[in-house]
Amino acid sequence: MSKIQKLFTDHPSSVGETYFEHLVCAAGYGFRMIFAGFACLIHSIFPFLFLTTASDLAREITGDVESRKSECSSPKQAEIFD
């Protein structure tokens, strides 16, 4: 495997995922964070909208990451999430 390929596969494989599995998961978190950010911005102008959307999404993402962390088989893998 070339050094370039390793750049794209080392981290995903260290958390038990393929490159594409990791891409989908990380992109999902990213899009949810972007949505939460827009919800915060809209809420700042219209405080009666999106009352708990951003905090709910933050808790959901944190819960997902924590559950993935506990699925890691070794302490070294769990450190990657910290």
Task: Give an account of the 3D structure.
By secondary structure, the chain is an all-alpha fold. The protein has one domain (about 5-80). Helix content is about 80%, strand content about 0%. The chain has 4 helices and no strands. It has helices at about 5-15, 20-45, 55-70, 75-80. Helix 2 runs antiparallel to helix 3 (about 55-70). The chain is elongated and about 55 Å long. It starts with a helix and ends with a helix. About 0% of the residues are buried. The mean pLDDT is about 85.
What does the largest sheet look like?
Answer: none
Distance between the termini: 28 Å
State the share of residues found in helices, binned by percent.
Answer: over 70%
Order of helices and strands: HHHH
Unreliable parts: none
Number of strands: 0
| Structure classification | mainly alpha
Percent range for β-strand residues:
under 5%
- Write down the overall mean pLDDT: 87
**Cα-atom radius of gyration:** 16 Å
Itemize the secondary structure elements and their pairings.
Elements: H1 3-14, H2 19-45, H3 53-71, H4 75-80
Write a brief caption for the model.
By secondary structure, the chain is mainly α. It has helices spanning 3-14, 19-45, 53-71, 75-80.
Index terms:
mainly alpha; 0% strand; 82 residues; 78% helix
